[in-house]
Structures are given as C-alpha cells and as structure tokens.
C-alpha cells in the first residue's frame, strides 16, 4: 500500500469525528449560528493568505518545472478561487464579506495550526514534510463535504454551494501532493516516515480544532476562563 493511502486510512476516524462535530452538523441542519460563521471567516481569511505563502516557500525546494507551475496555480486558487466558498458563508451570515475580514484575527487554534506548517517549511529541506502538514487542508474539507453530500440532500440548504465547492473533484491536487510524499517516503528513513505521519495526523486534528474554535468563538481570553 502506498504511504499516503495508509495515512488516509489512519485519519478516517478523525474525519468522521469532524463530520459529527457541531460546526458541520449545524451546516447540515442549515442552522449554524451566524456568530460561528463570522468567527470562522475572520480566522480563515488570514489562514488562507498564509497558506498561499507557504506554497511559495516550497518552490525553492522543487526542481521540476511542472511541480513549480502546479504550486503557482495552487497559490492562485487559494488567493482567488476559494473566496467563493467564503462568500457563501458571508451571505448566510448576512454581513458584508469585506467588513467581516477587515478585522480578521489570529485565535489560539488557527495561530497554532499555521505555525505547524511554517515550522516544517523552515525546519526541513525536503518539501514532503511541509506537504504532509498542508495536505489535510484540501483533503479533510473534500472528505467532509463528500460525507455531507452522500448523507443529506442539500437542496434548499443555505450551505449547499459551500458543500458543492469542496466536494468537487480534488483528485488532481491530491494526486500531485500524494506523488511528492510517496516518492520521498520510499527512500526515507523510519524516523523521517514517522515525522511525515505525525505531520499529517496533527494537521487533521488542527482541522477539527479549527471548526470547534469557530463554533465556540475562541479568543485568547476565553482559553484561560
Ligand atoms: C482551516 C482551513 N482548512 C482547510 C480549508 C480548505 N482549503 C480552509 N479553507 N480552511
């Protein structure tokens, strides 16, 4: 079994638990609190900007032209494409998107997640370590959206466009990311493979915490209350 296939099997229970968490279940019912949605957008706008910059940090780590072209396309997608999903959420919250993101904030959970990626980008010369920390970003959303779509009818649900956006074919992106990781994993030491696994799993847990952060409207003050 390929290394990334095994990783995906190992994180399936985490993804199922994200599906069952109150943020996603609120979307399924179509009654998620507007405050949770606004909190999510304030954090996610900042998160995606940094995520795009982390792709750019991978460019000097790659030699193949195709790979570099792919990274540039991903930067464009994160900066300009994914905003579509944000607009669906802002429409639900009935607040102007630009007004919401004007005072975006780094909350403890989102702050921790992005630093996990930056750490790997600066700590390790091979891109595979960072890619393992980044891959759950598209993978978890795709898997959660597919579960939502498979189990519920979203006709008339205010989050339908959000679900359709993330459920759509992510195969080319995941194939690229998996290819890099599998190639490196084949010749990696046991210690290196353990770090790759840990990075991937930790990011899946960061994804879970990110939704819960928005649901509970986490702040730096609230974590010490
Ligand atoms: C925190 C987070 N993780 C994943 C995604 C989907 N790219 C996102 N928009 N935000």
From TrEMBL:
<comment type="function">
    <text>Catalyzes an amino-pyrimidine hydrolysis reaction at the C5' of the pyrimidine moiety of thiamine compounds, a reaction that is part of a thiamine salvage pathway. Thus, catalyzes the conversion of 4-amino-5-aminomethyl-2-methylpyrimidine to 4-amino-5-hydroxymethyl-2-methylpyrimidine (HMP). Is also able to catalyze the hydrolytic cleavage of thiamine; however, this thiaminase activity may not be physiologically relevant. Therefore, is probably involved in the regeneration of the thiamine pyrimidine from thiamine degraded products present in the environment, rather than in thiamine degradation.</text>
</comment>
<dbReference type="GO" id="GO:0005829">
    <property type="term" value="C:cytosol"/>
</dbReference>
<keyword id="KW-0378">Hydrolase</keyword>
<dbReference type="InterPro" id="IPR027574">
    <property type="entry name" value="Thiaminase_II"/>
</dbReference>
<comment type="subunit">
    <text>Homotetramer.</text>
</comment>
<protein>
    <recommendedName>
        <fullName>Aminopyrimidine aminohydrolase</fullName>
        <ecNumber>3.5.99.2</ecNumber>
    </recommendedName>
</protein>
<dbReference type="InterPro" id="IPR050967">
    <property type="entry name" value="Thiamine_Salvage_TenA"/>
</dbReference>
<comment type="similarity">
    <text>Belongs to the TenA family.</text>
</comment>
<dbReference type="Pfam" id="PF03070">
    <property type="entry name" value="TENA_THI-4"/>
</dbReference>
<dbReference type="GO" id="GO:0009228">
    <property type="term" value="P:thiamine biosynthetic process"/>
</dbReference>
<dbReference type="InterPro" id="IPR004305">
    <property type="entry name" value="Thiaminase-2/PQQC"/>
</dbReference>
<comment type="pathway">
    <text>Cofactor biosynthesis; thiamine diphosphate biosynthesis.</text>
</comment>
<keyword id="KW-0784">Thiamine biosynthesis</keyword>
<dbReference type="InterPro" id="IPR016084">
    <property type="entry name" value="Haem_Oase-like_multi-hlx"/>
</dbReference>
<dbReference type="GO" id="GO:0050334">
    <property type="term" value="F:thiaminase activity"/>
</dbReference>
<feature type="domain" description="Thiaminase-2/PQQC">
    <location>
        <begin position="10"/>
        <end position="216"/>
    </location>
</feature>
<dbReference type="GO" id="GO:0009229">
    <property type="term" value="P:thiamine diphosphate biosynthetic process"/>
</dbReference>
């Amino acid at each position: 079994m390929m290394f990334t296939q095994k990783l995906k099997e190992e994180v399936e229970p985490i993804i199922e638990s994200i599906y069952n968490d109150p943020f996603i279940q609120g979307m399924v019912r179509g009654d998620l609190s507007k405050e949770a949605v606004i909190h999510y957008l304030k954090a996610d706008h900042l998160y995606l900007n940094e995520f795009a910059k982390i792709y750019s940090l991978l460019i000097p780590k790659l030699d193949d032209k195709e790979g570099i072209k792919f990274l540039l396309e991903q930067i464009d997608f994160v900066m300009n494409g994914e905003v579509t999903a944000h607009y669906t959420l802002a429409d639900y919250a009935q607040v102007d998107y630009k007004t919401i993101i004007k005072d975006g904030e780094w909350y403890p959970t989102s702050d921790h997640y992005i630093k996990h990626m930056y750490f790997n980008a600066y700590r390790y010369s091979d891109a595979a370590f960072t890619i393992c920390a980044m891959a759950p970003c598209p993978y978890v959303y795709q898997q959660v959206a597919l579960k939502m779509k498979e189990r519920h009818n979203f006709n008339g649900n205010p989050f339908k466009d959000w679900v359709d956006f993330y459920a759509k074919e992510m195969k080319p992106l995941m194939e690229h990311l998996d290819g890099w990781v599998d190639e490196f994993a084949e010749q990696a030491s046991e210690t290196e493979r353990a770090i790759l696994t840990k990075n991937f799993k930790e990011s899946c847990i960061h994804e879970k915490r990110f939704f819960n952060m928005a649901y509970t409207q986490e702040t730096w003050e609230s974590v010490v209350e």
